[in-house]
Design brief:
By secondary structure, the protein is α/β, with parallel strands linked by helices. Helices cover about 45% and strands about 20% of the residues. It contains 13 helices and 12 strands. The strands form 3 sheets. The protein has a 7-stranded mixed sheet with strand order 1-2-9-6-5-3-4, with helices on both faces. It has a 3-stranded antiparallel sheet with strand order 10-11-12. The protein binds nicotinamide-adenine-dinucleotide and zinc ion. Nicotinamide-adenine-dinucleotide binds near residues 83 and 161.
């Protein structure tokens, strides 16, 4: 069904979830053929496209033209760009706009944008009329390799990130890799942290490839497509085995317990993007693993070296303006959803590609580690 639109034909990755299975289409120029793909699956559906203003200015006209060309009527719902839109006020506005647009069962919400839009629009779709279907059209590297796949949707609470949400799988993901050409370099780099994550979790060969080929991934073309496909396959496999995170899916949180605490300490602001927090968090997870004697110190150095080479932060000292006292980070970690009765759950590693779920991490050990990290070398 997907037409090759250039020298790099589109790829399809299937997410296997019984009657909630869906395809991820990956390739250049797919926004131009999105109408045809959607119409083939849902002829006659009414569509509401949720986008942020930045993405709308760059890519919405093309998407609307493609939908209209396939005979699909759509309305647009725009929100401000940035993490601040994963909030109750914006959520309410989007939900009301969807109802106003007469989106009903059988119709579709289309999330055009990065992870913020996918999480927000997906959550809105999960509650409007007790759930309507949605399509993800991710436009950041982070959303193409991570947030658009797997069905986690939600918004932030005053208590922390992603504390309000639902599992709601999309019915289709359309990852147009040429949409990434307009992405600022800093955003691309941040998304790359989640790409590297898949290698660090359980695919040492992929991490080695990235160490040699990361420049090609940044440049675009085939290496970028390959890296996105490998990442989507890795996430699809884990989600297919553990949709609701009762076990293995937690591995995808590598770097995220430290990372979320850092995002909170920097006020979810432009000072530290999600992917940057994850990069720093992964470097910390490996250093913490080394400190606990789980992996060799040189493994932690190797991870840090690669992330630093691509320009990602790996030390607390790299965060502009600092992160405040360790006690604040500890409080944020205790608030994290991965906490269970006094002991902390972390994703630690025995090596590159050797991540595992550690359920019994002593908070005092984490505190001591963070104090060390906060002391400039
Ligand atoms: N649901 C999940 O499983 C999951 C997984 C990982 C992350 N997330 C969430 O994803 C969010 C981060 O996603 P993100 O990094 O995509 O952030 P984002 O959606 O805020 O996008 C980053 C910035 O890039 C801009 N942008 C997007 N696409 C563009 C393009 N093609 N050209 C130019 N500019 C573009 C946006 O306007 C925004 O300013 C966080 O809220 C995080 O919690 C969710
Ligand atoms: Zn993430």
């Amino acid at each position: 069904m997907t037409m090759p639109s250039s020298a790099h034909p589109a790829r399809t990755v299937r997410v296997d979830l019984a009657n909630r299975s869906y395809d991820i289409l990956i390739g250049p120029g797919l926004i131009e053929t999105a109408g045809r793909e959607i119409a083939a699956r849902r002829p006659g559906a009414r569509l509401a496209i949720v986008a942020d203003e930045t993405v709308a200015a760059l890519h919405l006209d093309r998407l609307e033209a493609s939908l209209a060309g396939a005979g699909l009527a759509s309305t647009r719902i725009l929100v401000a760009p940035g993490e601040g839109s994963k909030s109750f006020p914006t959520f309410e506005r989007v939900v009301e706009a969807l109802i106003d647009a007469k989106i009903e069962r059988g119709d579709l919400v289309v999330a055009l944008g990065g992870g913020v839009i996918g999480d927000l629009a997906g959550f809105a779709a999960s509650v409007v009329r007790r759930g309507v279907d949605f399509v993800q059209v991710p436009t950041t590297l982070l959303s193409q390799v991570d947030s658009s796949v797997g069905g986690k949707t939600g918004i932030n609470s005053a208590h922390g990130k992603n504390l309000v949400g639902a599992f709601h799988q999309p019915v289709l993901v359309i990852a147009d890799t040429s949409a990434l050409d307009t992405l600022p370099a800093r955003e691309f780099r941040a998304g790359y942290a989640e790409v590297a994550k898949y290698g660090l979790i359980d695919d040492a060969a992929f991490f080695s490839e990235l160490e040699s080929n990361w420049r090609e991934v940044f440049e675009g073309g085939r290496a970028r497509l390959d890296a996105i496909e490998t990442s989507c396959r890795a996430k699809a496999a884990i989600v297919g085995r553990d949709e609701r995170e009762s076990g293995e899916r937690a591995l995808l949180n590598l770097g995220h317990t430290f990372g979320h605490a850092l995002e909170k300490a920097t006020g979810f602001s432009q000072r530290l993007l999600h992917g940057e927090a994850v990069a720093l968090g992964m470097a910390q997870a490996f250093r913490f693993s080394a400190k606990l004697g789980l992996c060799a110190p040189k493994v932690a150095e190797r991870v840090e070296d690669h992330l630093a080479e691509v320009g990602l932060p790996t030390r607390l000292q790299h965060i502009a303006g600092g992160v405040g006292p360790v006690s604040d980070l500890m409080a944020a970690i205790a608030q994290d959803k991965k906490v269970a009765r006094g002991s902390l759950t972390f994703i630690l590693a025995r090596g590159v590609g050797g991540a595992f779920i550690a359920k019994d991490v002593d908070p005092a050990a984490v505190q001591a580690f963070l104090e060390e990290e906060a002391t400039p070398a």
